[in-house]
Structure formats: C-alpha cells, structure tokens
Amino acid sequence: MSFQETDRAQVLAEALPYIQRFYGKTIVVKYGGSAMVSGQLRHAVISDIVLLSLVGIRVVMVHGGGPEISRMLEQVGKNSHFVDGLRYTDGETMDIVQQVLCGKVNKDLAATINRTGGRALGLCGLDGGLFQARKLDDKYGLVGEIHQVDPRPVTDALADGYIPVVSTVAQGTDDAVAYNVNADTAAAKLAVALKAEKLILLTDVRGLLRDPGDENTLIAELQLSSVPALVREGVITGGMIPKVDCCVESVRSGVGSAVILDGRVPHSILMELLTDAGIGTMLVK
Predict the structure, then answer these.
(1) In angstroms, how far is CA 114 from the centroid of its own chain?
(2) 39-54 and 106-115 are packed helices; what angle lies between their axes, rounded to 10 degrees?
(3) Is 249 left (phi over 0), alpha (psi -120 to 50) or beta?
(4) Is 162 helix (H, G, I), strand (E, B) or coil?
(5) For residue 261, what is the enclosing H or E element?
(6) Does an H or E element contain 169, and which?
(7) Mind listing the pLDDT tens digit for each residue in 183-206?
(8) For the chain, what is the largest distance between any 2 Cα atoms, rounded to a whole number of angstroms?
(9) Cα–Cα dist 262/271, whole Å
C-alpha cells in the first residue's frame, strides 16, 4: 500500500469519532461570500453538506445572495445603495430581493444539492412564518430585524430526511410587507431555535486574526468572556464585529459552539468538523 493510500485511510479513521459525536445533531451553515461565487468552491461546499447529511448529521443551509441581487438590480437599471453597510431596500428593490433569494438562488442551490446526491428542500423565511421581523430603521428602508423564529418548517423537513435550504427574507409583523434581513443574524437565530450543536459562518477571511496582517495569528478558540477585551484592543474590528456578535449571541443562547470559517478553502467544512485540527475560529462558552 502506498503512503498516499495509507494517508487517506488515516484521514477516514480520524473522522470516525467526529461523525459519532455529531451523528443526529443539527449543524447550521451560513453560506455566502466567495464560496457562493466560485464554481469550484460552490461544488466543495455542496459536496461537504451532502456527505455530512449522508452520515447522519442534520445539516441546515442558510444563504444570502448579495452579488446576485446587485446583478439583477443592474440589469433593470437600478443602482445599489448602501447605508452603514446595509443595502437600502425600497419597495422595488425588495421585490427583486425576494425574487432572487426565494426564487432563483434558493432553488438553484436546492437543485445542485439534489444533483450531488442529497435531498434538499428550498424554504424562505416567509414559509410558515419561519422568520418574523420588524423594520430595523426607516433609513434602511425594508430591512428587518428578526424578533421571532418558528423553526417548524425546518424541523419538519429535517424529520423527513431533507437538507433545508433557507433564504433570508422575513415576514413583517409590524406591516404587511416582507423584509430583507441579514443572513448571518438569520442563521444565528435559526441555530438557537433549532438547539443546534454548531453554527458555521462561511466568510472570506481565515477566521479571527490577532494581527489582521498576519494569517499565522489565527485565534483557533475563543471564550465568550474574552470578546469584549479583543474589541477594546482593536483585534475585533469592522465587519468582523457583527459576525462575532452573531456567534456570541448564538452560543450564549444555547448553541454548542460557533465557528467563523474560511469559505475560500475547498472542503473547509469537513476539515473543521471531521478532523483533529480544525481551521477556523471557534467561539465557545
């Protein structure tokens, strides 16, 4: 037997205790960034999710679709406008957000999972009142803040053996409208409602770095109690703050752990879940 074959067997053997640990547990994966744009990375993420499902892990995918929304707005001659990093969403933009997220992106992802050997069911936050939200602030337009999650559409799909694929549009409770909601926040709140074992946020960075200019300074594990000090020290800054906040909220509310993971690395989900090393930043209580 060659070294390569032995090495492959060792990898499979190493995965066994992790498969046993996560068997029957729920993992929520927020899918976005480069992993959603690159065909190679997209295939790797879908393959990882199908494999996890086939070995008995209950996987839920939550997705956004910012680039696709921007592309469709451009096609209809409408400029994308952002306020404090959030897409300003007027009525016309909301119509396009709903069409793109709940329609094309959601169903394309479900179809890709099905073609890869999984059984996917596409859902959006409007289905069964899954995500219920109120307007965040007038300055953002139809952008909502989720205040309630009814996980039954997702738990029913999981019970029937499906991989739920969830788009992040929410049902308004303060008005008869649909709201555009942040995908990281939606994934975190859904993970809490599902009592998930783990929340994974796929990003375009390696994880949380002590020195943002040096990828060798990855913080592999972070206690919730250490987060405020890292914010004061400027280690957690900019766009990483809301991601860390989502992770902190989810773990504090009962999720086993939350991971900020580099979606630019093919099969990063499998490496994080089923190997000894792990490759992202894991937040734990």
Answers:
(1) 19
(2) 60
(3) alpha
(4) coil
(5) strand 257-262
(6) strand 169-172
(7) 999 999 999 999 999 999 999 888
(8) 66
(9) 11
Q: What single letter denotes the amino acid at residue 68?
A: E
Distance CA 283, CA 225 (A): 10
The owner of tokens 């205790």 is: 17
CB atoms within 10 A of CB 95: 14
What mean pLDDT is predicted for residues 36-59? 93
Residue 40 one-letter amino acid: Q
Which among 165, 56, 183 is positioned nearest to 120, based on CA atoms? 165
Give the SS3 label for residue 203: strand
Amino acid at 172: G
86-91 long-range CB contacts below 8 Å, 24 or more apart? 86/136, 86/140, 86/143, 86/182, 87/143, 87/180, 88/139, 88/140, 88/141, 88/143, 89/140, 89/141, 89/142, 89/143, 89/179, 89/180, 90/141, 90/142, 91/142
What residues have CB less than 8 Å from 138, skipping those under 6 apart?
none
pLDDT tens, position by position, 81-116: 889 888 999 999 999 999 999 999 999 999 999 999
Name the DSSP class of 119.
-
- Residue 52 CA to residue 270 CA, distance in Å, equals 8
Residues 53/118, Cβ–Cβ less than 8 Å: yes
For the whole prediction, is pTM greater than 0.90? yes
Nearest to 193 by CA among 172, 220, 164: 164
Amino acid at 55: V
DSSP string covering 129-156: G-EEEEE--GGGBSBEEEEEE--HHHHH
Q: Map tokens 């406008």 to a residue.
A: 81
